[in-house]
Write a structure and sequence with these properties.
By secondary structure, this protein is α+β, with helices and mostly antiparallel strands. Strand 12 and strand 13 form a beta hairpin.
Length: 611
């Protein structure tokens, strides 16, 4: 539950999908390792099976070929010996001929009717000629019937079975194969059957030596009986009359696979064991085999379980490691997502808190102040537009004046034209007009910047003294160039709540007008700025000792700048804007007191709004 709560923020369906993908990738990696390990074991087992089958096939086929060759050589030897020595004692010829042959247990001669005429038994330590009284008729034996029906001169290989004498199985068991030659009538003994019995006990034991640690050998004689089987009780079932299944019926899937093909490899039978098999059909010249053989290799089911376990362990380890590695990466990714989600949540909270504070701030602001702010911006834009219009008209007048100057210069340059009018300094007037134009252009640009900057400003608390100190530092170079000192006496306790830039520009206009136009001569003058609060009003006093008296021009001092006023006054525009600022924007008043040779005093009264 804690895990779910911890990772709920990153979307539980997504987390579940990531887990399932990790599980699938881990399972796939484990399956690939399992399949690779399992295939490695199976390839080794396939090589082991193939080696056993190949060795058994080679040894068995060679043994059958040797027996066929021995039968041919023995027949030729007997014909030669019987012809050279005569046929008075043929049994002795058979005895002497058979002594030199390995694994030979019997050599016999049967007449056409199946009666034994000669039989010599070869024991491990001796050999004996069977007396005529003990000779048997073999007409009922399958190998006689098969051989007598074959063409003359053909060697017939009988199936491998246990040797039977007088109707009883010889003990100990004597696995036997018989080579039978159907002799021609020209044979010294006439037409008959030459039969050589070979003891295959040693061969079968030799074949069993090819078995491997995890591979058992099984050899089936057709579908009759097992010649070699890990379970001895299943061997020689047909000879011993046991009620046993035929070999290929004992392994149904093997019979099905060998029905359409001669070999198969590594299939799992019903008992859980792993089998490989191949059919062995003997093909020898002038030889007929009565029985096909099947060589089978078997790996018990316990080793298959061992292979599965050995393959499963590294696959589980691999899957676990992949799950851990991918899980670590996913955990790191999830932690990043959680941190990012938490950060986004914190940012959202901060944003909501900031917006709430802004809403509260807007609600707390005085509606009158907000209205004043709007009026400030609108006023500055209107003033900038008016000054721009005025500048365009002055530019036009300036162009006309330049044209008149050019015409006057042309007329005075002609010697035939005489005038009694006093000379006029047109170039001086032209320079004055250009100076006024530059001043107005500078003021217009400053007002435009002020309007633009106020759009980015916010109403805030500020110190009037700080504003004035910064302004005096800015205007000090201009004042010093005219021999004027700037001084302030404003208490630090006066804190206003308004646009700082508005007050800075207001006093800049006033001080610029006084510095540039209140002092006709360069003197050691001064301008003092002081402020105080009285009856909820802010009273600002600007006092100078200039030699120009404003009294005589008081009527035009605060008028806006017009074309006709350029001829007499060049500072009206600054005071007009300052007065409009004070009276319209700040709901205050401005007055001028002037005394000849005692300077001028500007008194500004503004309703005081505490911070």
């Amino acid at each position: 539950m804690h895990f779910i709560q911890k990772y709920r923020s990153i979307n539980l369906p997504k987390l579940l999908w990531l887990f399932l993908i990790n599980f699938a990738l881990s399972a796939l990696a484990g399956l690939m390792v399992y399949q690779w390990q399992y295939n490695t074991y199976m390839r080794e087992l396939a090589n082991e099976h193939a080696t056993v089958i190949s060795n058994v096939n080679s040894a068995f086929s060679q043994a059958m070929g040797d027996m066929t060759n021995i039968a041919r050589i023995t027949n030729d030897t007997l014909i030669h010996n019987l012809t050279s020595r005569g046929i008075e004692n043929p049994s002795q010829v058979f005895l002497s001929t058979g002594r030199s042959l390995n694994n030979l247990s019997q050599i016999r001669w049967l007449s056409i009717d199946g009666q034994e005429k000669i039989r010599v038994n070869f024991l491990s330590t001796s050999s004996q000629i069977v007396p005529p009284s003990k000779l048997q008729n073999k007409a009922d034996r399958y190998y006689y019937q098969e051989a007598i029906a074959s063409p003359q001169g053909i060697i017939t290989l009988s199936p491998i079975d246990l040797n039977i004498e007088n109707g009883e199985i010889v003990r100990p068991y004597q696995p036997t194969i018989r080579t039978v030659i159907h002799a021609f009538p020209s044979h010294p003994l006439g037409e008959g059957l030459l039969i050589l019995n070979f003891d295959l006990g040693g061969l079968l034991k030799q074949l069993q030596l090819f078995e491997k640690t995890h591979t058992d050998l099984l050899l089936a004689s057709g579908e009759t009986q097992w010649l070699i089987h890990p379970d001895p009780s299943k061997q020689w079932g047909a000879n011993l009359n046991r009620q046993l299944k035929a070999p290929l019926t004992d392994i149904p899937i093997l019979k099905k696979k060998l029905f359409s093909q001669n070999a198969t490899s590594l299939f799992i039978a019903e008992d859980g064991a792993i089998y490989s098999a191949t059919k062995l059909n003997l093909r020898m010249k002038h030889t007929h085999s009565m029985q096909p053989y099947t060589i089978i290799t078997r790996t018990p089911d316990y080793y298959r379980s061992y292979i599965i376990n050995q393959s499963l362990l590294p696959s589980i380890i691999t899957a676990f490691l992949v799950f851990c590695m991918v899980g670590t990466l996913l955990r790191h990714h999830i932690q990043q997502q959680i941190a990012l989600t938490a950060l986004n949540a914190e940012l959202a909270k901060e944003k909501d808190s900031f917006l709430a504070l802004m809403d509260d701030d807007l609600k707390q602001q005085d509606p009158v102040q907000l209205k004043m702010n709007h009026r400030v911006l609108s006023f500055f834009v209107a003033i900038n537009k008016e000054v721009g219009t005025c500048l365009n008209e002055m530019q036009y007048q300036l162009s006309q004046m330049e044209e008149n100057i050019n015409l006057l210069a042309l007329s005075t340059s002609q010697p035939d034209r005489q005038t009694t009018a006093p000379p006029i300094d047109w170039h001086a007037n032209h320079g004055l007009l250009r100076y006024c134009f530059q001043q107005i252009n500078s003021t217009s640009t400053r007002l435009g910047h002020l309007a633009s900057n106020l759009e980015k400003q916010h109403v805030e608390n500020f110190s009037l003294k700080s504003i004035m100190v910064d302004l005096i530092a800015t205007l000090a170079p201009l004042a010093r160039s005219r021999g004027i000192g700037l001084r302030e006496n404003i208490p630090e306790s006066i804190i206003l709540h308004n646009y700082p830039l508005l007050y800075s520009q207001l006093f800049e206009l006033l001080l610029n007008a006084l510095i540039r136009h209140d002092f006709e001569k360069s003197t050691d003058g001064y301008i003092d700025i002081s402020a105080k609060t009285l009856n909820n009003n802010l009273i600002i006093c600007v006092q100078d000792d200039g030699d120009r008296c404003f009294e005589r021009i008081n009527a035009a001092l605060f008028k806006p700048f017009h074309k006709d006023s350029i001829k007499t006054h060049t500072f009206g525009i600054g005071l007009y804007i300052a007065r409009h600022w004070v009276t319209v924007l700040l709901d205050g008043d401005i007055k001028v007191d002037s005394t000849q040779n005692h300077g001028n005093q500007l008194t500004i009264t503004i309703p005081f709004r505490h911070a």
